[in-house]
């Protein structure tokens, strides 16, 4: 290709392009997806009504029907709800409206990587208050002191925290809400597994914004639907920056069916919670492995030469987990999503074999493998 091209914004140099490469694997436990597809009843309804679906019409920009159901279920008005193209888009929208040049985000790493990426893309300054190394608890005093400086425009708290799995104390979140007028985004992407929400505090705190998604508990990661619960003034500001037609008509319709029948997801959610505890228990029994308690549908664990373990799982067992070992604060950490019972058993059996194999292998061979490196990025 020839011709001239003016360079893009100089500050994008520090942003890596997100090219998610999902290797084809037998068991994919890398993206915190639901191991089950939609319930048969929902799939049958979709198939039955598909011929009448108006693909030729633009979607309702505000997803009114879905918005009303979500508001109703949460004891709120439709004006308190915003539906987006996955939680990811809504985080970006919040960053567009409350971040930007000259504005500041307070972040609590290690946490969901998109917060930092979206801040960079929107030219928002990021102030990090790192979590404690041993158990990933927040440094409450440091956060409150930093907020006391009065220059923070927005705080984001993953609740429970991805990828560490822990839930910060409700008392801490209330202290944050009281300490600042900054917008406080509480990301409850895994709320259906943690069973804890900050929703009751919305009436008292205008600065509280709650994010939820259909991607995890509701088996809709392939469709891209998330929603925010917030004060109507916040929703109004966000509708200024959002893409009007970002949630397509088909996604609105399917998410509406899923939400109406959400009681069907209760049993699978309970099963995932049970299986999570079994995976945690299984990992904790392995010598040299530290597994961290989780309130979500994944478990973070630490194991020496995690990069080599990641590769061994992929190449010798056809199992993909998330390698976080190069993220600051997550040295030697991998994250495994909770799959079906069979997948979890296969993962635990592989880990058991791998750990005992490593015990007997010469440490030199393992170290040589660890030096190879790979490009898996810790994004979701
Ligand atoms: C903490 C957290 N927030 C938000 C998201 C975004 O989810 P989605 O865009 O699929 O709704 C994820 C996805 O993994 C997540 O882990």
Verbal overview:
The protein has 380 residues and is of the alpha/beta class. It has 2 domains: 121 residues, Aspartate Aminotransferase, domain 1; 221 residues, Type I PLP-dependent aspartate aminotransferase-like (Major domain) (Aspartate Aminotransferase, domain 2), CATH 3.40.640. The chain contains 13 helices and 13 strands. The strands form 3 sheets. The protein has a 7-stranded mixed beta sheet with strand order 2-8-7-6-5-3-4, with helices on both faces. The protein has a 4-stranded antiparallel beta sheet with strand order 9-10-13-12, covered by helices on one side. The protein has a two-stranded parallel ribbon with strand order 1-11. The chain starts with 26 loop residues before the first strand and ends in a 10-residue tail after the last helix. The model has no long low-confidence stretch (mean pLDDT 94). Bound molecules: pyridoxal-5'-phosphate. Pyridoxal-5'-phosphate binds next to helix 3.
Question: What is the topology?
Answer:
Blueprint: E1 27-28, H1 40-49, H2 64-73, E2 81-84, H3 86-98, E3 104-107, H4 113-121, E4 125-128, H5 140-148, E5 154-158, H6 170-179, E6 183-187, H7 191-194, E7 208-213, E8 226-229, H8 232-241, H9 249-260, H10 266-284, E9 289-291, E10 298-303, H11 306-317, E11 319-320, E12 322-323, E13 333-337, H12 341-360, H13 363-370
Parallel strand pairs: 1-11, 3-4, 3-5, 5-6, 6-7
Antiparallel strand pairs: 2-8, 7-8, 9-10, 10-13, 12-13
Helix pairs in contact: 2-9, 3-4, 3-8, 5-6, 10-12, 11-12, 11-13
The protein binds pyridoxal-5'-phosphate.
